[in-house]
Amino acid sequence: EVAYSSITINKIDNEEPTIELVLDDQIVANENHVLPTNYTVGKSGGNASCSVGENQITNTNTLEVGTYEIKCIVTNNAGISKELIKNIEVITEEENSSSGDTNNTGE
Questions:
Q1: CA distances from 39 to 15, 17, 88 (A)
Q2: Is 30 within 8 Å of 59 (Cβ atoms)?
Q3: I need a surface site. Which of 19, 23, 56, 96 has the fewest CB within 10 A?
Q4: How many Cβ atoms from other residues are within 10 Å of residue 43's Cβ?
Q5: Is the bond preceding 36 in cis, omega lying within 30 degrees of 0?
Q6: For the chain, how far is it from start to end, CA to CA, in angstroms?
Q7: How far is Cα 72 from Cα 86, in angstroms, rounded to an integer?
Q8: What's the half-sphere exposure (Cβ side, CA atoms, 13 Å) at 75?
Q9: Do 19 and 36 meet the contact criterion of CB atoms below 8 Å apart?
Q10: What is the 3-state secondary structure (H, E, C) of the chain?
Q11: What is the pTM of this model?
């Protein structure tokens, strides 16, 4: 007579993923900012992505001058997700240079 048994061990990853978008509200066109700027997924692994509207975006250097809502989401392989939304304005180098002159009193 042969006896046997089996054991199933499941590891549960309940670690909350994190995601960050560390960007100024205004950035200069063609600046390189990888998106998202940082994320963690925990032991089970996972992925993160960002989009503007329906278009996936991995770097701000692809954005033309204008105002954008960037939406990023991170999901670990345990199915836990976090979402982050940030509004930014992309300006020209000239606009950036002139914005530093805030002490103009007109005298």
A1: 13, 7, 19
A2: no
A3: 56
A4: 13
A5: yes
A6: 103
A7: 9
A8: 5
A9: yes
A10: CCCCCCCCCCCCCCCCCEEECCCCCEEECCCCCECCCEEECCCCCEEEEEEECCEEECEHHHCCCEEEEEEEEEEECCCCEEEEEEEEEEECHHHHHHHCCCCCCCC
A11: 0.78
- Could you tell me what percent of the chain has a pLDDT over 70? 86
Task: Using the structure block, give the residue that is written with the tokens 């250097």.
Answer: 61
Q: Tokens 């960007």 sit at which residue?
A: 23
Is residue 96's pLDDT more than 90? no
Tokens of 105: 């009193």
